[in-house]
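ok trying this again, last paste got cut off
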Amino acid sequence: MSFAKDRKLINKLVKFLKVFAKIKKTEVDLVMYVGFIGLGTMGAGMASNLAKGGYKLVVHDARKEVAEPFLSNNAGWAESPREVAEQCEVICLSLPGPNEVRGVADGENGLIEGMRTGGAVFDLSTNSPTVIRQIGDKFEAKGFHFLDAPVSGGPAGAHSGKLALWIGGNKQIFEKYKSVLQTMGDQVAYIGPIGAGSVAKLVHNCAGYTIQTAIGEVFTMGVKAGVEPLALWDAIRQGALGRRRTFDGLSQQFLPDSYDPPAFALKLAHKDVSLATELAKEVGVPMRLSNMALEEMTEALNRGWGHLDSRSPLKLQQERAGVEIKVDTEKLKEVLKRDPAI
């Protein structure tokens, strides 16, 4: 082959590579980079759904080993929250509570040090509205956006995408990134100004834990009054409250008397109710039963039950009532099979 022909082929190859490079660059530009910090039980599920939705992830966690499944699936790793912010226009947080969120948001090497102008952070954690607003003010002053976006649906919902997300903050930013949030949950709602999402979450969670305390109280009364636990449960679940599935949760942990492994750890539930009662004090609302529920949970924590399920404080009421409730799981399944829980 002559030199002229070689050169002609080389020129064609160079042109092809240039065109290919432009195409690949366009494809890369169309991919949104989403940062995700906190890959625990909830975070891992939500981050997985983002990856399945076609977003390029840049992840960070205090324990790098929990990020390995994502790194092996082409996610990028960042050594600090700041590095996440430097690479992504939108960032999601799934962290244990206010202190961790503060540290990640505006601590040393925090997000605020690396954010792009107009960049947005969605805090999926259950957080304090006061803390959220303080962080939000700092971010807005620098041209960034911080929104609260707590979720409800538990670990199963985090993995399946059947989650409710309640968003508080700049509505235009919410609309801009709504499609990102919808990749993680099937019920995404804008609640109001910053902090509103966290207020909604605390109302929801605190109500749930307060109700479970009341149920434990009246259920032990019924048992001590002579009604067999399974028969009592089977009966009351057909009442007005039961038809709304209020009592179906008793089939998990409480009736079988099995609190480990937890569906949701007591130490995290204690944090949620603490935040709700603190909020009530801030706005001047008395919360007699909620504070009683918190006292129950605190006593359970002091028993060393923090790692057990959040329903474990119900054991305290059984002790006080002098009854022991333990129903055969197969019998529970028979009841649920006749009338399945939603």
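PB: full thing came through this time. Strands lie at 33-37, 56-60, 76-77, 90-93, 120-123, 145-148, 151-152, 164-168, 187-192.
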